[in-house]
């Protein structure tokens, strides 16, 4: 991931789920194997909706949902030569308590980074060790009109 593909820092007000998916599609179109995207925001902020857009932008198969019964799910590319997507909901690790680092290690996401783009919800403070370079995305849903303020920054790039 570099600035030629996506600006190093950005901010966008997103009015609804459709606009969130559109922003995700922009992000997804720029992802390559080895990229890590950390999504942060409160429950209901739109992290999974953004991940759905990322999947659409990457052109992967399968429906992206908030992983209720699994922590991570892999989505294969629809076209030959495409990039795999690993969508992880690390909230389940945080919610379980115990050894967070061990739980993250058990997911083996660092191995997946070699051939996939990893999108981790609730990854802040936990998944940074997976990659020195990453895209950190924060979603703020505090606006009275229901819109979301989405900010992002590239870390370790350049």
From TrEMBL:
Record-stated family: Belongs to the TsaE family.
Compartments where found: Cytoplasm
KW Nucleotidyltransferase (keyword) present: no
One Pfam short name: TsaE
tRNA processing is among the record's keywords: yes
The protein's name in its UniProt record: tRNA threonylcarbamoyladenosine biosynthesis protein TsaE
Keywords (A to Z) from UniProt: ATP-binding, Cytoplasm, Magnesium, Metal-binding, Nucleotide-binding, tRNA processing
Signal peptide extent: none
Job description of the protein: Required for the formation of a threonylcarbamoyl group on adenosine at position 37 (t(6)A37) in tRNAs that read codons beginning with adenine. Is involved in the transfer of the threonylcarbamoyl moiety of threonylcarbamoyl-AMP (TC-AMP) to the N6 group of A37, together with TsaD and TsaB. TsaE seems to play an indirect role in the t(6)A biosynthesis pathway, possibly in regulating the core enzymatic function of TsaD.
GO biological process: tRNA threonylcarbamoyladenosine modification
């Amino acid at each position: 991931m570099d600035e030629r593909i996506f600006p190093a820092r950005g901010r966008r007000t997103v009015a609804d789920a459709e606009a969130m998916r559109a922003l995700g599609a922009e992000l997804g179109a720029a992802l390559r194997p080895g990229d890590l995207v950390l999504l942060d925001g409160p429950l209901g902020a739109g992290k999974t909706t953004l991940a759905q857009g990322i999947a659409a932008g990457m052109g992967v198969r399968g429906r992206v949902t908030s992983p209720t019964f699994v922590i991570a799910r892999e989505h294969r590319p629809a076209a030959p030569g495409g990039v795999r997507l690993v969508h992880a909901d690390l909230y389940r690790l945080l919610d379980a308590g115990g050894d967070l680092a061990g739980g993250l290690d058990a997911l083996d996401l660092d191995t997946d980074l070699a051939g996939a783009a990893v999108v981790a919800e609730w990854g802040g403070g936990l998944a940074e060790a997976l990659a020195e370079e990453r895209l950190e995305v924060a979603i703020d849903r505090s606006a009275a009109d229901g819109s979301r303020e989405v900010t992002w920054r590239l870390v370790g790039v350049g």
